């Protein structure tokens, strides 16, 4: 009996121990689960905070100047280059090697050279065969060499390449080249003879200019320009040599797809400058065509720099914005007071960037107060702000001058417009008083009311500048127009877009006729 009691007590004790152990295990599991949950929450918080901070830093990076980037894979510093072209030893002519007469990039290159008034000579880039003559007597024929496809230069046969390089070194002539990719191009490769690699057929974004590049002239370094660049056929240069400097940077959109991969978010050069420290020849290489507007500016600057500033554009710009047909237009299409206010506001805004910027308004007085009530108020608001603008005559009735067959008819029209403009009731000589004014007094009351438009409005008449409606009579020359302009307005300058031809615009020129200078419109 005693034995049974002892066994029962032992069993109860064992069960109690197991229950205590079970409860302890449950507490341990609950504590571990709680700890895991807290750890997950804390980790998620820090991951989110880090992601948010990374985005904020990325946004901040877009607001700083390009020169402020600290982790670009290039040395951004002032650099030394080889000597530039000697003006006394070469002609100011550019030798351009194109793929064909009709290649798109080749035509873009020629268009820029022609628009800049730079002399050039075109050659089809030879796959094999002789180069054109580079020297005449002891003088170099070309100040700069441009290759539409830099691979034609890289893969040139050794004899012609040595001749060309020798010419470039002896006459301090630079080379500009463009790398063109195709669907068959390798994605990663190296240019023969150059210590850097290239990645091709890429889409890029977020452009930035190296502020220390010696090429910059027209182009100015600025803040990071966010957004995709046009095209998916870009080439970026992987350089790690002091003889080469980046000019423009960009980020690769999908760097993880490259082999070997490149760092995500890093900037890579799309235009590089070979400083000529390796072989004495300075080169500028573009990783794309000229469709990107910034490449056009860098191309112009590269021409300027490599030619020793002999082929360069002035930094002075004179901007004149003519607004023709003031007071002209059908009801519902004319300026009201809000439009005039917007014009003044725009002018003031432009003056913050362009010293003394002033809109130049061309007026045709016959159409004053011929709109709706709101538009007539706009006319009055314009004349109330007459001193805020420049003004030029645009023919009283907006008729084209070549439709007038005699000088006296043109003079009559111009006098009407001048009477409309003058302040203080200035009188004309008797010979300028013409029949339409006398006949006007004998007409109906409606016509007499129309005469009230001839009151003085204080529009300046001494600018010496006029524009004919549609530039009619300027070229081809309508002699009567020039004579009438001189007699009534003392015109010294006008403009046209027709000389010698309307298109292409880059071929337009100015001329002088009857001591009146004719400028051309771009």
From TrEMBL:
Domain Heparan sulfate-N-deacetylase N-terminal, which positions?
90-306
Q: Where in the cell is it found?
A: Golgi apparatus
Q: Where is the Heparan sulphate-N-deacetylase deacetylase domain?
A: 316-427, 454-518
GO molecular function annotation: heparan sulfate N-sulfotransferase activity; hydrolase activity
Q: InterPro entries in the record, alphabetically?
A: Heparan_SO4_deacetylase_dom, HSNSD_N
A GO term from the CC aspect: Golgi apparatus
Give the transmembrane ranges.
29-48
**Keywords on this record?**
Golgi apparatus, Membrane, Transmembrane, Transmembrane helix
Is Transmembrane helix one of the keywords?
yes
Name of the featured protein: N-deacetylase and N-sulfotransferase 3
**GN (gene name):** NDST3
């Amino acid at each position: 009996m005693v034995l049974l009691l002892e066994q029962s007590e032992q069993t109860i004790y064992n069960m109690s121990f197991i229950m205590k152990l079970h409860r302890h295990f449950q507490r341990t599991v609950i504590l571990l689960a709680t700890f895991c949950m807290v750890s997950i929450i804390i980790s998620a918080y820090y991951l989110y905070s880090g992601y948010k901070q990374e985005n904020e830093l990325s946004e901040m990076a877009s607001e700083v100047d390009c020169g402020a980037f600290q982790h670009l894979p290039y040395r951004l510093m002032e650099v030394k280059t080889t000597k530039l072209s000697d003006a006394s030893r070469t002609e100011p002519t550019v030798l351009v090697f194109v793929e064909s007469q009709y290649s798109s990039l080749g035509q873009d290159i020629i268009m820029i050279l022609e628009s800049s008034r730079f002399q050039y000579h075109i050659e089809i880039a030879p796959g094999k065969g002789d180069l054109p003559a580079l020297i005449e007597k002891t003088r170099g024929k070309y100040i700069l060499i441009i290759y539409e496809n830099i691979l034609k230069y890289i893969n040139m046969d050794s004899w012609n390449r040595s001749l060309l390089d020798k010419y470039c070194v002896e006459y301090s002539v630079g080379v500009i080249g463009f790398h063109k990719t195709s669907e068959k191009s390798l994605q990663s490769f190296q240019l023969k003879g150059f210590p850097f690699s290239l990645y091709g057929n890429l889409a890029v974004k977020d452009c930035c200019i190296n502020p220390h590049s010696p090429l910059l002239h027209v182009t100015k370094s600025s803040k990071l320009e966010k957004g995709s660049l046009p095209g998916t056929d870009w080439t970026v240069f992987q350089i790690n040599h002091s003889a080469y400097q980046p000019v423009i940077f960009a980020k690769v959109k999908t760097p993880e797809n490259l082999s070997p991969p490149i760092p995500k978010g890093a900037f890579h050069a799309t235009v590089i400058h070979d400083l000529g420290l390796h072989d004495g020849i300075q080169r500028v290489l573009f990783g794309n065509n000229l469709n990107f507007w910034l490449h056009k500016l860098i191309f112009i600057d590269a021409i300027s720099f490599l030619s020793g500033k002999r082929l360069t554009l002035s930094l002075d710009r004179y901007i004149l914005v003519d607004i023709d047909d003031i007071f002209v237009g059908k009801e519902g299409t004319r300026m009201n007071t809000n439009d005039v206010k917007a014009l003044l506001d725009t002018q003031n805004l432009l003056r913050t960037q362009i010293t003394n910027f002033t809109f130049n308004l061309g007026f045709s007085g016959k159409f004053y107060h011929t709109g709706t009530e709101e538009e007539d108020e706009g006319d009055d608001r314009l004349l109330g702000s007459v001193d805020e603008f420049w003004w030029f005559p645009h023919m009283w009735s907006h008729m084209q001058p070549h439709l007038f067959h005699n000088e006296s008819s043109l003079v009559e029209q111009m006098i009407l417009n001048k009477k409309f403009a003058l302040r203080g009731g200035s009188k004309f000589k008797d010979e300028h008083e013409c029949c339409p004014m006398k006949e006007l007094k004998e007409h109906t009351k409606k016509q007499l009311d129309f005469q009230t438009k001839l009151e003085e409005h204080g529009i300046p008449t001494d600018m010496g500048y006029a524009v004919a409606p549609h530039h009619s009579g300027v070229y081809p020359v309508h002699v009567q127009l020039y004579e009438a302009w001189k007699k009534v307005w003392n015109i010294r300058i006008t403009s046209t877009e027709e000389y010698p031809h309307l298109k292409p615009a880059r071929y337009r020129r100015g001329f002088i006729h009857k001591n009146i200078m004719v400028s051309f419109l771009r």
